[in-house]
Amino acid sequence: MAVTSDVAQCLAGTLSSDPNTRMAAELKLAELLKTPEAGLALAQLAATQDLDIALRQMSGAILLRKYVMERWSPYFATFKGSAAPVEVKTQIRQAVFQGLSDPNRKIRSLCAHTLSTIADCDWPDEYPELLDSLITIISSDSPEAVHGAMQMFTEFIKSDLTEDQILPVLRQLLPVLLNILGAAEQHSPLTRSRTISVFRQCVTALFMVKDQHPQAVKEATASVLPVWLDAFKVLLNIDPQQDVIGKDNWDGLAIRIQVFKTLDTMYTSFPRALAPYLQDFLNASLYHLRVLLPTFVHYYLSPENSAPNTSEDEPIDLAQLVCPLLDFVNNATRGGKAKTWFEQGNLGELVRLIFGWMQMTSDDEENWSSNANAFVAQEDDETQVYGVRISGFEVLATLLERMPVQTTATFQSVIQQVVVDSRQSKESGNSDWWRPLEAALAALGSQAEGVLDCVEDEEASERPKPIDIQTLLTDVVPSSLGLSECPFLQGRGFVFASQYAKLLPSHLAGQYLDAAIQVIEAQDAGIPIKISAVKAVQNFSQGMEDSIIAPFAARIASDLGPFLLLTTEDTLSLVLDTVSVVLDIDHGTWLTQELAGSLTTATLDVWSKNIKDPLFISLLSDILSSLSGSKTPGIYEVVVRQALPVLSSAMGSAKPDESWIAESAVELTAGLVEGAPDTGLGEGFFATLAPNLFACLKTTEDRDVLQNGTACLTLIIRKDVGQLLTWSDAEGRSGLENVLTIIGKLLDNQDESGGLFIGDLIIHLLRKAGDAILSVLPEMLRAMVGRMGTAKTASFIQSLVIPFCFLINNQRDTVLSLLESTQIQGRSGLDVFIQTWCENAETFQGFWPNRISSLAMSQLYLSERPSLQNVMVKGDIIVKPETKNVIMTRSRTRNMPTEFTSIPFPAKAIKLLLKDLQSGGEAATFTAPDAGDLDSDDGDEDWEEEEKLNQGFKEDEFAFLSDMLGPRVAFDNDDVLEDNDDEELRKDPVSQMDMQQHLVTFFKDCAARNTNNFQGVTGHLSEGEMSLLRRVIEG
Question: Per its UniProt record, what PROSITE patterns does this chain match (predicted)?
């Protein structure tokens, strides 16, 4: 009791207005809290109902939780020692648990939060009775106790139940929760909403364990989910206006929010259970959108009206309801089960209501008018803040994907009506007349790509266009461009026009572009319109023909240059993106030396201020690459003269603990090199760069610096290897020797991520250095094959193997002799190389690497080298009776490791080459078992007839995926996955050859000549492989 009295006295002292008294009390309290008794005192004070509420809150909220985090257990990262004894912990837990039933709501909430923290650590091992105790009090008749326990449960279910505990807990818990949800007279809406939140966590938990306990989960969902869905149906059929009109708080919305969140989760997890109710819930969704829209307009579009909070003073708004509602509609639409509902005539009203809910609120207007970065973030596809507008965009995108023509035609009718209504609203003097029109243009603009594709498809099929964008661009949008009193509509007009730039006739496109540039140049233009103009210029630069925009390019670049020095964060990112796009117009032929110089200076200035930001560094590197790549004579020299000394100096002066300086400087230098002309880097380039670059790479251990440095050296070798070969450092070591030193360092480094690009460096060194590398080649190759034995990551292994594949195609016997004569820890280098290659060949990435690997594999087979006949490699998986048709989890794999057959290398080579052919030849028509025959819970039976014909996709989706999956679909498609290879490799004869025909000829010749005992080797092939081989040979 003495400790409790001391703690209470100190707490009172901390609330004193006298600073000396307050400080003394805080110091004494800090000492007291080091003792276990102080923790118990805090818990008892928090539970003492006749104590001053301020002292109780301080005890239960701030100090007791702080005590738990610091003095409870090493489980917490903030633990400071002196953990309380077990008996004291038990008393503290009892006191805090008692607080869940306290008459004061705030005390209940604070105790729930503290108890949840304790449960993180103690349950179930040290606090096994917690769950039963919680279920007991939520089963009681006390609304206060239920309220406190439900707050605790919300966190508890989310974080503390393991897979094995979930099902037993749900059997006890869910019936009690359902009783609370149905007791509207006894429990508050907020308490009832928490029962739905906990139920949603239970649904998620069931989904997570359905593979481990399929039958139990099936039974649970069959018996539990329909009951809750019936309850949700009843709740949503109650008019939502009752929860918002004439109410001091919006507690009732909390229930609806949780219902729609849960419906969305259920559709994702167990759509089949939801299917019988889907029409009702979609109707309810549409009804909510319709009847609550006037409330949204009243409270959110006008700054004079403030929406109420909850009775617990927590913020609640209609966006919290509409976002999960739209997410649910979106998932149902994407899944396919909503098709019938849309056929009943609901599409038009849904689109109209989404347009209405996407209107800009007064808070948006105030925030975006003064905060440029917030406005840019909202407008950028990659940084958009999730909200009603973004949820609406996603639903529209899904509708357009599922029903392109119907949706596009609906857009036309809805926006026509919006234009008419906005005009009438403006004429009647409504100051908010512009909001619906801005929202409609934003909605239609967000779907520009899909709309344009739909229009193009309909025109190609000689059907009427479902939407008339041209009329909007000529009759509606131009009138908004001069409305300075409506800056957001004005800006939206520019952005909308730029999103549909492809449809603009040349003269009108030029007028739009000129108007946007004038806004950028205007001194008095506000943030929204100026940023919109920059965004429009960016879109115009990407969507217009160079012939239209090139005359404006120099003016745009000159106008944007000062913005680089004035903007930050998202706004700076937009400006950098736009400058980068503009510089690519007509290959920069419009640049002058003066403009290029000023842009280079600005780029370096931005770099110095944002040197740690990888996104900005990437954009700045692109800008330098575009500047140095300009086709105008003299530009390259100007850019290099200004940038290279600064970047090289930064590499040399960066301290070891400032790796980001060297990392970014090397990346920007690589940008300069990438843009260099084909004639070379220019006199003195490498001499200026090399000393600092090599010194930096030799001393650094930073992964990113090594990666960037390796990539930069690779570019230099590609662009101008002569400079590297003729340069030598102060000690007389050549550039080649320095490069080999870096390669050696990367091979020795156990952190393989730093050497991910070593393969490209070595490949181009072999291709470009010619005879200069012959003297050091054997030593380098031995080092590489020596590293293969310890290499772990697939990308690093590829970097080691592919250079050998390249050499085998050019100097097969020389390379094989070297490998045969090399010993690596008692194994021949040939054995190490062949084992590594065969185990990883199927994981190689990139078009050229896969081709060079296949060519080398066929070369080795044709060599009939005796040493290769004795190399045994991993074959096919051995399927055991106990693992057949069993999903192998990690635990099962640990207990029953996967085993493989062992086969000679020639047989493995044939297997791998057959697989390559199957990926690109006629065997790709082999079909897998019909997935439609499997029992699943996807619930997507509608929109399926077309999809069953195309492996689960619509025809156009399947065609798109087929294009994307090119190299594994067609070996003779030279355009696929070329982004993984540089330009030189794309032009290499290996990339240009008909690989499919090469492999077919290879197999036919081997069969005809029985090369390398081809007939005997085929005995190691599977039935499917033999079938394919016969078709190839006989075809």
Answer: IMPORTIN_B_NT
Whether 716 is in a domain gets the answer: yes
Q: Phi, psi at residue 612, to the nearest 5°? A: -100, -5
The span from the CA of 757 to the CA of 778, in Å, is 21
For residues 492 and 376, give the distance between their C-alpha atoms in angstroms, rounded to a whole number: 13
Whether the Cβ atoms of residue 663 and residue 704 lie closer than 8 Å to each other = yes
- Cis bond before residue 633 (omega within 30° of 0): no
| pLDDT band per the 50, 70, 90 thresholds, residue 606 | very high
C-alpha–C-alpha distance, residues 889 and 665, integer Å: 46
SS3 readout for 875-934: EEECCCCCCCCCCCCHHHHHHCCCCEEEEEHHHHHHHHHHHHHHHHCHHHHCCCCCHHHC
Show the tokens assigned to 873: 């490699």
**Is position 676 within any domain?**
yes
Local structure of 824: helix, strand or coil: strand
| pLDDT per residue as tens digits for the range 671-726 | 999 999 989 999 999 999 999 999 999 999 999 999 999 999 999 999 999 999 99
CATH number at residue 619: 1.20.930
- Which among 667, 381, 371 has a CA at the least distance from the CA of 538? 381
Distance CA 759, CA 753 (A): 12
Instruction: Answer for the pair 79, 86: CB distance below 8 angstroms, yes or no.
Output: no
Lowest mean pLDDT among 2-6, 763-767, 989-993: 2-6
Gap between the Cα atoms of 107 and 60, Å rounded: 7
Distance (Å, whole) CA 122 – CA 116: 10
Q: What are residue 874's phi and psi, to 5 degrees?
A: -70, 130
Question: Which stretches within 485-545 are classed as H helix?
Answer: 487-499, 506-521, 527-543
- Taking alpha carbons only, the member of 714, 718, 650 closest to residue 688 is 650
Beta-bridged to residue 827, according to DSSP, are 824
- Whether 571 maps to a domain, the answer reads no
Write out the residue range of the structural domain in which residue 637 sits.
591-734
Residues, the chain: 1035
pLDDT of residue 381: 59
Q: How far apart are CA 149 and CA 100, in angstroms?
A: 6
> How many domains would you assign to the chain?
1
Instruction: Count the neighbouring beta carbons within 10 Å of the beta carbon of residue 237.
Output: 11
Query: Cβ of 974: how many Cβ atoms within 10 Å?
Result: 16
Nearest C-alpha neighbor of 183 from the set 220, 206, 150: 150
Within the chain, how many helices (H) and strands (E) appear?
53, 4
Amino acid residing at 351: V
The count of C-alpha atoms lying within 13 angstroms of the C-alpha of 784, restricted to the half-sphere facing its C-beta, is 30
Helices (H), 72-162: 86-99, 105-122, 130-138, 143-159
Residue 465 identity (one-letter amino acid): K
Convert 254-294 into a string of H (helix), E (strand) and C (coil). Answer: HHHHHHHHHHHHHHHHCHHHHHHHHHHHHHHHHHHHHHHHH
Residue 363 neighbours by CB distance under 10 Å: 12
Contact 807, 815 (CB under 8 A): yes
Cβ atoms of 592 and 598 closer than 8 Å:
no
Q: Following DSSP, what letter does each residue of 585-653 receive, concatenated?
A: GGGGTT--HHHHHHHHHHHHHHHHHSTT-HHHHHHHHHHHHHHHT-SSTTHHHHHHHHHHHHHHHHHHH
For residues 265-288, give the mean pLDDT.
95
Q: Using one digit for the tens of pLDDT, what is the confidence trace for 326-365?
A: 999 999 999 888 999 999 999 999 999 999 999 999 998 9
- Beta strands 827-828 and 872-877: pairing type? unpaired
Q: What are the backbone dihedrals phi and psi of residue 884, each rounded to the nearest 5 degrees, phi first? A: -70, 130
Provide the terminal-to-terminal Cα distance of the chain, rounded to the nearest Å. 95
Angle at 998 between CA 996 and CA 1001, to 5 degrees: 110
Contact between residue 488 and residue 527 where contact means Cβ atoms under 8 Å apart: no
**What burial letters (b/e) apply to 885-922, b meaning 16+ CB within 10 Å?**
eeeeeeeeeeeeeeeeeebbbbbbbbbbbbebbbbbbe
Can you tell me the mean pLDDT for 824-831?
91
**What does the block give as tokens for 1017?**
């080797």
